[in-house]
Amino acid sequence: MNDEWKTILEDYNKAKEALWGSQKSGYWSREEDTGLYHLWKAYYHAISSSEKEPLLYARILCMMAGESRDYYSEYEKYHKYIKPALDSYNMAINMGLNPTEKELEQIRCSEALMSYNLKCREKPYEDHISLIEGYELLDDFEFHDSKPVMFAHTEDTARLTLKYEDFYVTFLFEDVIDIYAAGDPMTNYIMDFYCYTAYNDNKLLIFDVDFYRILCRSIKVEEIKNSL
Fold this sequence. Notes:
By secondary structure, the chain is an alpha+beta fold. 43% of the residues lie in helices and 23% in strands. Strands 1-2-3-8 form a four-stranded antiparallel beta sheet, with no helix packed on it. The chain has a four-stranded antiparallel beta sheet with strand order 4-7-6-5. A hairpin with a 2-residue loop joins strand 2 and strand 3 (167-174). Helix 2 crosses helix 3 and helix 4 (74-94) crosses helix 5 (101-121). It is elongated and about 70 Å long.
């Protein structure tokens, strides 16, 4: 390891200590500003280096992916961190280096899940819409440029009403497992629509319209009308 990568390793270790702690720590609290400073410093010099230390580079990329949270879309995170990290791990193994089984399992699972999701999103619109019961009623409705005007949920059901031109369409989600909701209700206009089966269970559906992502077992067109 040359001097450049020794410095990168020092920053990576400082980032780990500040963000994740260590077994040597007694009382520990997360020092986010310090940790992110050293992580980004390590990452910047790592990607700028003409020659990589593949195992350390892979670990830095994985840490960047974990700490980026919602700063990037899944597409960006996959191509920026996850896929390059897996490639770098494989290079390290070919060079006789020994990543742990735990970190290999984590990166392989992350790559498989994200790769599956991205491939599903590339499928034709017909494949997505056909998973919604009653989709035949949506001939004059478009998800693109529609606006969420109502969202509500109980413990295991949810309803989302989207307005498109003069149409108000309410979708019913049953056996809900997980809900992600974000954005400003005043300005949310949908750009993308995806609906596909989950990676680890093809009986689960993922409904994704930018600001709402719902994991459930059933999606239905419950109501279509011209006013609320």
